[in-house]
Amino acid sequence: MSSHGRWRRRAMDRLVGWIARHPVAIVAVTVVTVAVAIAITLGYRRMVFATFDPEVAEVTGVKVQWVELALMVMLSLTILVTMRVIGTLLISALLVIPASIARMLTKSFARMMFVAPAIGAFIGFFGMFASYHLNTSASATIILVGAVLFVGVYTITGASGRSRIAAMHHL
Questions:
Q1: Half-sphere exposure of 66 (CA within 13 A, CB side)
Q2: Confidence check: pLDDT of 19 > 70
Q3: First and final CA of the chain: distance in angstroms?
Q4: What confidence tens digit (pLDDT) does each residue in 68-116 have?
Q5: From CA 67, how far away is CA 47, in angstroms rounded?
Q6: Mean pLDDT of the chain
Q7: From the CB of residue 166, how many other CB atoms can be counted at a distance below 10 Å?
Q8: How far apart, in whole angstroms, are the C-alpha atoms of residue 77 and residue 143?
Q9: CB–CB of 140/124 below 8 Å?
């Protein structure tokens, strides 16, 4: 393969990812997923309190700066380990689409915290399944499945789902 071909392949890998070429990165994603799930489970009350009402949380003894730092570290690690697997351009879609769908389907933040990862896993599984059978890029197919699911839920939930999405900036 020419140097131009290798450069082009590496550039495309960084932009849209290539799951099959990075089995070590998939292990890293799994490790970070488990670590983040444990951290959220152990610090859930403090995180919610510090996120929704930081002044009151600070007065009651919650170290809001440390909670915000932990949230930023978890987000940064998630982005860092998924960059190789799904590509730079698709990370934001995989972070936003499942949360948006979960917000349209649920009324409580606690339920949304459990529904969003399940939706993300569903999107990932069916995206990989479709990618394999259609012989397409896995990352792009996963995002397409997520987008189709988002449009479907957005259409089905009607005004109530749209109002919950519009209210997300209050979270």
A1: 8
A2: no
A3: 50
A4: 999 999 999 988 888 777 777 678 888 899 999 998 998 888 888 889 9
A5: 6
A6: 82
A7: 10
A8: 20
A9: no
